[in-house]
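Protocol step 4 of 5: obtain the predicted structure for the target chain.
Materials: sequence only (see below). No template structures provided, no constraints applied. The aim of this step is simply to have a reference model before the mutagenesis design in step 5. Sequence pasted as it appears in the construct record:
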Amino acid sequence: MNDSSSARPAVVLDVWCELQCPDCRSALDDLRALRARYGDRLELRLRHFPLEKHKHAFAAAQAAEEAAEQGQGWPYIEAVLGRVEELNRAGEPFLIEVARELGLDAEEFDTALIDGRHILIVDADQAEGKAIGVTGTPTYVIGGERLDGGKSQQGLRERVQEIADRLLAEGV
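Step 4 output (C-alpha coordinates):
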Protein backbone atom coordinates (compact mmCIF):
# COMPACT_ATOMS: atom_id res chain seq x y z
CA MET A 1 0.00 0.00 0.00
CA ASN A 2 1.66 3.19 -1.18
CA ASP A 3 -1.06 5.63 -0.21
CA SER A 4 0.80 8.15 1.95
CA SER A 5 -2.45 9.69 3.20
CA SER A 6 -3.56 6.45 4.86
CA ALA A 7 -3.45 6.04 8.60
CA ARG A 8 -0.70 4.15 10.39
CA PRO A 9 -0.20 0.59 9.25
CA ALA A 10 -2.41 -1.90 10.98
CA VAL A 11 -1.21 -4.07 13.81
CA VAL A 12 -1.36 -7.70 12.71
CA LEU A 13 -3.05 -10.34 14.83
CA ASP A 14 -2.47 -13.85 13.52
CA VAL A 15 -5.12 -16.27 14.76
CA TRP A 16 -4.05 -19.91 14.46
CA CYS A 17 -7.35 -21.68 14.22
CA GLU A 18 -9.18 -24.68 12.91
CA LEU A 19 -12.81 -24.74 11.93
CA GLN A 20 -13.80 -27.92 13.76
CA CYS A 21 -12.52 -26.64 17.10
CA PRO A 22 -15.06 -25.76 19.83
CA ASP A 23 -12.47 -23.50 21.52
CA CYS A 24 -12.10 -21.52 18.29
CA ARG A 25 -15.88 -21.14 18.18
CA SER A 26 -15.75 -19.75 21.73
CA ALA A 27 -13.07 -17.29 20.57
CA LEU A 28 -15.39 -15.82 17.91
CA ASP A 29 -16.89 -13.34 20.38
CA ASP A 30 -13.41 -12.08 21.23
CA LEU A 31 -12.50 -11.75 17.56
CA ARG A 32 -15.72 -9.84 16.84
CA ALA A 33 -15.06 -7.53 19.78
CA LEU A 34 -11.50 -6.89 18.62
CA ARG A 35 -12.67 -6.09 15.09
CA ALA A 36 -15.33 -3.75 16.48
CA ARG A 37 -12.83 -1.98 18.73
CA TYR A 38 -9.96 -1.55 16.27
CA GLY A 39 -11.51 -1.66 12.80
CA ASP A 40 -8.84 -1.20 10.15
CA ARG A 41 -6.13 -0.58 12.73
CA LEU A 42 -6.01 -4.31 13.51
CA GLU A 43 -5.46 -6.73 10.67
CA LEU A 44 -6.95 -10.05 11.72
CA ARG A 45 -5.38 -12.92 9.79
CA LEU A 46 -6.76 -16.44 10.09
CA ARG A 47 -3.94 -18.96 9.96
CA HIS A 48 -4.78 -22.61 9.46
CA PHE A 49 -3.79 -25.19 12.03
CA PRO A 50 -6.00 -28.25 11.46
CA LEU A 51 -5.60 -30.79 14.23
CA GLU A 52 -5.42 -34.50 13.42
CA LYS A 53 -8.09 -35.32 15.99
CA HIS A 54 -10.67 -33.44 13.90
CA LYS A 55 -11.10 -35.35 10.64
CA HIS A 56 -12.88 -32.56 8.72
CA ALA A 57 -10.57 -29.70 9.81
CA PHE A 58 -8.20 -29.98 6.85
CA ALA A 59 -11.08 -29.85 4.33
CA ALA A 60 -12.62 -26.95 6.27
CA ALA A 61 -9.35 -25.00 6.05
CA GLN A 62 -9.31 -25.51 2.28
CA ALA A 63 -12.95 -24.43 2.08
CA ALA A 64 -12.16 -21.27 4.05
CA GLU A 65 -9.47 -20.43 1.50
CA GLU A 66 -11.98 -20.92 -1.32
CA ALA A 67 -14.42 -18.63 0.51
CA ALA A 68 -11.70 -16.00 0.83
CA GLU A 69 -11.02 -16.31 -2.90
CA GLN A 70 -14.73 -15.71 -3.51
CA GLY A 71 -14.65 -12.64 -1.23
CA GLN A 72 -16.44 -14.12 1.81
CA GLY A 73 -13.59 -15.40 4.00
CA TRP A 74 -14.71 -14.18 7.43
CA PRO A 75 -18.45 -14.69 6.93
CA TYR A 76 -17.72 -18.28 5.89
CA ILE A 77 -15.35 -18.91 8.79
CA GLU A 78 -17.90 -17.55 11.27
CA ALA A 79 -20.72 -19.59 9.72
CA VAL A 80 -18.76 -22.85 9.92
CA LEU A 81 -17.35 -22.21 13.39
CA GLY A 82 -20.81 -21.37 14.67
CA ARG A 83 -22.00 -24.85 13.69
CA VAL A 84 -19.08 -27.10 14.70
CA GLU A 85 -21.43 -29.97 15.60
CA GLU A 86 -22.88 -30.03 12.08
CA LEU A 87 -19.38 -30.15 10.61
CA ASN A 88 -18.55 -33.04 12.96
CA ARG A 89 -21.62 -34.92 11.76
CA ALA A 90 -21.82 -34.11 8.05
CA GLY A 91 -18.25 -33.33 6.98
CA GLU A 92 -17.57 -31.99 3.50
CA PRO A 93 -21.22 -31.82 2.33
CA PHE A 94 -21.80 -29.36 5.20
CA LEU A 95 -18.91 -27.17 3.98
CA ILE A 96 -20.51 -26.97 0.54
CA GLU A 97 -23.95 -26.32 2.05
CA VAL A 98 -22.61 -23.32 4.02
CA ALA A 99 -21.10 -21.95 0.79
CA ARG A 100 -24.50 -22.27 -0.88
CA GLU A 101 -26.23 -20.54 2.07
CA LEU A 102 -23.84 -17.59 1.73
CA GLY A 103 -24.53 -17.31 -1.99
CA LEU A 104 -21.08 -18.54 -2.98
CA ASP A 105 -20.33 -20.80 -5.93
CA ALA A 106 -20.89 -24.16 -4.23
CA GLU A 107 -19.80 -26.14 -7.28
CA GLU A 108 -16.48 -24.32 -7.20
CA PHE A 109 -16.12 -25.30 -3.51
CA ASP A 110 -16.73 -28.91 -4.41
CA THR A 111 -14.14 -28.73 -7.19
CA ALA A 112 -11.62 -26.99 -4.93
CA LEU A 113 -11.95 -29.74 -2.32
CA ILE A 114 -11.47 -32.40 -4.99
CA ASP A 115 -8.54 -30.81 -6.84
CA GLY A 116 -6.78 -29.64 -3.67
CA ARG A 117 -5.92 -26.20 -5.04
CA HIS A 118 -5.64 -24.69 -1.53
CA ILE A 119 -3.67 -27.49 0.15
CA LEU A 120 -0.32 -25.68 -0.16
CA ILE A 121 -1.62 -22.63 1.73
CA VAL A 122 -3.00 -24.81 4.53
CA ASP A 123 0.21 -26.86 4.71
CA ALA A 124 2.36 -23.70 4.77
CA ASP A 125 0.32 -22.20 7.62
CA GLN A 126 0.51 -25.42 9.60
CA ALA A 127 4.27 -25.71 9.08
CA GLU A 128 4.81 -22.09 10.15
CA GLY A 129 2.61 -22.64 13.19
CA LYS A 130 4.62 -25.68 14.24
CA ALA A 131 7.85 -23.73 13.69
CA ILE A 132 6.79 -20.99 16.11
CA GLY A 133 5.49 -23.41 18.73
CA VAL A 134 1.75 -23.54 18.07
CA THR A 135 0.41 -26.77 19.57
CA GLY A 136 -3.32 -26.11 19.82
CA THR A 137 -6.05 -23.77 18.72
CA PRO A 138 -6.81 -20.98 19.05
CA THR A 139 -3.34 -19.48 19.38
CA TYR A 140 -2.79 -15.76 18.84
CA VAL A 141 0.41 -14.06 17.75
CA ILE A 142 0.62 -10.28 18.03
CA GLY A 143 3.73 -8.12 18.24
CA GLY A 144 5.90 -11.22 18.32
CA GLU A 145 4.10 -12.57 21.40
CA ARG A 146 2.32 -15.93 21.33
CA LEU A 147 -0.84 -16.33 23.42
CA ASP A 148 -2.24 -19.84 23.76
CA GLY A 149 -6.03 -19.85 23.82
CA GLY A 150 -6.31 -23.62 23.52
CA LYS A 151 -5.59 -24.05 27.23
CA SER A 152 -7.59 -21.09 28.49
CA GLN A 153 -9.11 -18.03 26.87
CA GLN A 154 -9.46 -16.29 30.21
CA GLY A 155 -8.11 -12.74 29.90
CA LEU A 156 -6.83 -13.27 26.36
CA ARG A 157 -8.85 -10.51 24.72
CA GLU A 158 -7.58 -8.05 27.34
CA ARG A 159 -3.99 -9.19 26.73
CA VAL A 160 -4.38 -8.79 22.96
CA GLN A 161 -5.84 -5.31 23.52
CA GLU A 162 -2.94 -4.32 25.79
CA ILE A 163 -0.41 -5.36 23.16
CA ALA A 164 -2.38 -3.79 20.28
CA ASP A 165 -2.79 -0.52 22.20
CA ARG A 166 0.94 -0.44 22.94
CA LEU A 167 1.91 -1.16 19.32
CA LEU A 168 -0.53 1.42 17.98
CA ALA A 169 0.78 4.01 20.45
CA GLU A 170 4.33 3.25 19.33
CA GLY A 171 3.22 3.58 15.73
CA VAL A 172 4.62 0.17 14.85
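Step 4 remarks: Confidence is low (pLDDT under 50) at residues 1-5. The CA atoms of residues 45 and 90 lie 27 Å apart.
Proceed to step 5.
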